[in-house]
Amino acid sequence: MDDLLSEFLDETAENLDVVDRELVRFEQDPSNQDVLDTIFRAIHTIKGTCGFIGLPRLEALAHAAETVLGKIRDGKLTVTPSSVTLILEAIDQIKVILTHLESEAVEPDGDDVNLITCLLGVADGHGEDVPESAQTETVKARSVKSQTVRVTTDALDDLMTMVSELVLTRNQLLQTMRDSQDTDSHSPLQRLSSITAELQDNVMKTRLQPISTAWQKLPRLVRDIAVELDKKIDLQMQGDETELDRQVLELIKDPLTHMVRNACDHGLETADQRRAAGKSEQGTLRLSASHEGGHIFIDIADDGQGLDMSRIKEKVLEKGLATASEIQAMSEEALTTFIFHPGFSTAEAVSNVSGRGVGMDVVRANIEMIGGSVSVRSVPGQGTTFTIKIPLTLSIHNALVIGVGDEKFALPQLYVKELVQVGGQSEHNIEHIHNSAVLRLRETLLPVLSLSETLDVVTDEGIETHYVIVAQIREQQFGLIVDQVFDTEEIVVKPLSRLLQKLSVYSGCTILGDGHVVLILDPTAMVTAPGTAHADGVAA
Amino acid sequence: MTQSVQAQVDQSTKDYLSFVIADQVFGMPVELIQDIFMPESLTAVPLSDETIAGVLNLRGTIVTMIDGHASLGLPKPDSASAQMAIRLEYEGESYGLMVDTVGDVLSLTADFYEENPSHLDPAWRRFAKGVYRLDDALMVVLDVFEVLNLKLAHGVKSRKGMS
Question: What is the mean pLDDT of chain B?
């Protein structure tokens, strides 16, 4: 049974339950307008939906019932026991048809001409008598089994917040238990812990939606663009059942649409160009989504002309983003990342489909805002593939708890590539070039920032060994010197109040297992310009 | 809490919670107050304005703590005396105003009310909403959201950048 039909059955079952209840009141008090309105609306909804999904028999019957109800509502018809009986009969018949629909997924054969005639007769003000033959089938108890219930998204969000709190509290409890000798509570606590984890999983599942909900508008969009630009585009979608958090889905909808637009506009060539290049006239745009280790990967691949490297080089020079010799030394991969630079667009002409150069940087910013990343691969003449990597959920992260001086901070694991011990007995040491600190790490020089300087926190000068957290932000790597590295913890991000939101080095705060609040660092704000990063983050 | 709201039916009285910051008595309408608590395990927020004392966890709620002394431009207490905090909500966010001591809830009639004295410091005019003459002190009515808004407008001061 297709989704539309089963949804209709659920919805109609709900509506009929209302009608059943209201009809009893209606019979007792036929002059009550509210009751009549409710019944009318329910029947009207059923009729409307039937017409929409193509159930002519049901539609005709609902229409006839609606006509009678409409006349009664408008005061053109007085309620008589026989007209009520007729309406009840019509509703019973609707239920019969629904039962059949539920089991067979098609309307039963035959029609309800008799019943409809009677109904319309009543509506016209005559034909008061109810023919025995009006009932075409005996009514069996209807049992449309409800597979789904409607829940407001707010309720789901609240549930998720509460579960997140529960996870935090559980972590707190585990921490307390670790420090205590009480072995009796050990096993119930383990049980609590696993139930909490299961609950978290299940609640997260209720929030999942297939990515197809974000994709459903794309075929139309691609068609329109194809017509406008006189291109032939075949849109293929794979993995549209891949599920991700509702909230994440909302947030990637716009970037995704933008990238599809871009691919149609800039990526794919016109039929003439494609023929000249020895390709099939029809370009292919392939969207695919998959789920890999806590992340969702979305590919947007076209078989178009690929990124124009020489245009990118020109543009980089023109914008003064790099010198000619620097460009010479850059790999193609490094060059392609310039397309994510603000105000960077190589499209020759600004079309109204995409691109006034506000595109890819905004796309990247939006994706990074939810802890995702976007990368691009391009082969000249063969096409371009954008890959978006996004977390499954925004609610719970893993974070590394680090210490500087007396302060603790949380750093989302997402950014952490590796940990290196420096100073003391370690083989690694921080070296300085003028005022810039660097670390030799496997044949490369890694720029390093000191967290204590960045945050203006007093640190104990006596400590010999430090740790460098190698962080990966986009294509940049940098090191962050900290005094101590503690555990990794599951954290629930809580927003900072508006008085603190200006501090872009923090993305929020969280409550640790021990009940203390720690601030969550946002390394992307530190890397805006390595070595010159403003400690107050205002530059970002 | 030891405060008891005097059950007076007189229409013209208003209930204020009195509290002290640097020897000055202030008052705040009781209906604004969500909690009164002793701040514990405060987390400092590096780079923040000096008026921000830090953030803390109050039964699962993140409360941004406001340093009462710094916000009002009053001298810092000499020693780390036991401080109290008053929690308020502002557009869904929780703030805790740190004060030296919390006094009684006072039901005051308009008879004791006076406008701000004309020569009051302009900075104080913004958050002082008049004065009540108490028997033993003068109580300044504090518009706490004005204190916060003032800080919002101020923004965050730029501190030491990286060299």
Answer: 81
Q: How far apart are CA A260 and CA A279, in angstroms?
A: 21
pLDDT number for residue B34 = 93
* Residue at B60 is within a domain: yes
Q: Are A499 and B52 in contact (CB under 8 A)?
A: yes
Instruction: Tell me which of B41, B42, B43 to substitute to probe the interface with A (most A C-beta atoms closer than 10 Å).
Output: B43
AA letter at B102: V
Statement: residue B132 has pLDDT above 90: yes
A 10 A CB-CB count for A191 gives: 10
Query: Is the Cβ of B92 closer than 8 Å to some Cβ of chain A?
Result: no
Which pLDDT band holds residue B79 (cuts at 50, 70, 90)?
Answer: low
> What residue numbers bound the domain in which B128 lies?
14-153
Task: Please report how many Cα atoms fall inside a 13 Å half-sphere around the Cα of residue A126, on the Cβ side.
Answer: 0
Rounded to two decimals, the pTM is 0.59
Both tokens of residue A151?
A: 């829940």
CATH number, domain A210-391: 3.30.565.10
What whole-number distance in Å separates Cα of residue B83 and Cα of residue B63? 16
Mutate to test the interface with B, among A458, A483, A499 (most CBs of B within 10 A): A499
Structure tokens given for A224? 């329109």
For chain A, say whether B109 makes contact (Cβ under 8 Å).
no
Query: Which chain B residue has the Cα nearest residue A519?
Result: B45
Stated length of chain B: 163
pLDDT in tens, A412-465: 888 888 999 988 777 888 888 888 888 988 888 899 999 988 898 888 777 788
Highest mean pLDDT (candidates A422-426, B32-36, B76-80, B118-122): B32-36
**Distances in Å between the alpha carbon of A304 and those of A35, A96, A369, A407?**
61, 55, 29, 52
CATH topology for A396-526 is: OB fold (Dihydrolipoamide Acetyltransferase, E2P) (2.40.50)
| Under 8 Å between Cβ of A108 and A76 | no
Residues of chain A with C-beta less than 8 angstroms from the C-beta of B44: 407
pLDDT for B102 equals 93
Please state, in angstroms and rounded to a whole number, the distance separating the CA atoms of residues A34 and B40: 57
Half-sphere exposure of A390 (CA within 13 A, CB side): 33
B15 band by pLDDT with thresholds 50, 70 and 90: very high
Identify which of B157, B68, B73 has the alpha carbon closest to the alpha carbon of residue B123: B73
Q: Are B41 and B136 in contact (CB under 8 A)?
A: no
Helix, strand, coil shares of chain A, percent, nearest 5, are 45, 25, 35
In which residue ranges of chain A is pLDDT below 70?
Answer: 1, 126-146, 293-294, 345-358, 393, 395, 474, 528-540
The CATH code belonging to domain A3-134 is 1.20.120.160
